[in-house]
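User: I'm putting together notes for a lab meeting next week and I want to include a structural view of one of the chains we've been expressing. I don't have a solved structure, so I'd like a prediction I can at least talk through. The sequence is below, exactly as it appears in our construct file.
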Amino acid sequence: MPIDAAKALAAAPRTGGIAWDHKDVLLYHLGIGAGVPATDPGELRYTLESRLHVLPSFATVAGGGPPGVIGALSLPGVDVDLARVLHGGQSLTLHRPLPAEGTATAADRITAVHDKGEAAVLVTRTEVTDANGPLWTSDARIFVRGEGGWGGDRGPSARLDPPAGDPDRTVERHLREDQALLYRLSGDWNPLHADPRFARAAGFDRPVLHGLCTYGVTLKAVVDTLLDGDVTRVRAYATRFAGVVFPGETLRIRMWRGEGAVRVAVSAVERGDAPVLADTVVEHR
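Assistant: Thanks for the context. Below is the predicted structure for the 285-residue chain, given as structure tokens.
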């Protein structure tokens, strides 16, 4: 079997150094749609180095290497085809506000392998620490189609009860036709997001947007709409990827206020509000 659960779970963390500066942060912000309108003071917080605030979801690309979804495929015990891999969910816990430049050590490991029958699910964890201590911890849930069925533990459900009542705020964010081409410059070179032939081989009629791009667009909308534009208020952010997004579409982002948290649901307007992100929670101060 291409996934050796025992070997994957027993492996020592893979550690390495990462570094980033303000240019990496600016490029990431542009990749998730910041800068519209270009001279809006709220947008300049994301696009002008002299007043730069780092959106916490930048942690998913900091260092410019392959994201956890791709990096996990080279961890011990894992040998699978990238075309059969889907990003199922992502969570992020912030230990401190992210600096606009820094150097740190990232430790990656697989914390769980679940058998969903027709697919295997890998849960990977990345812990990032700098000279002052822990910076962030992120977890990714990775579905590998066709690799389940060995009789292993199915694992817990990631589903939450839906939010009650009407949303407190709803906003829409239009995505550029070249959104995926811009976002991939932050380090995710998976051809699924750029190459039509690879996308068709993976079962899509055209390239799809990175799930982590939608993840960033959504967090920015929550911060700008309900958290007074203050990125330092975000404590944690988790989502389940419920469907694909195509570049050029419009995201409808619904938000429900709670005590110390915002529940969020995201859908694709042009496809009849097809669900895109579900079970999404932004914890805040």
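A couple of points you could mention at the meeting. The chain has seven helices and ten strands. Residues 115 and 154 are 5 Å apart (CA to CA).

User: Perfect, that's what I needed.
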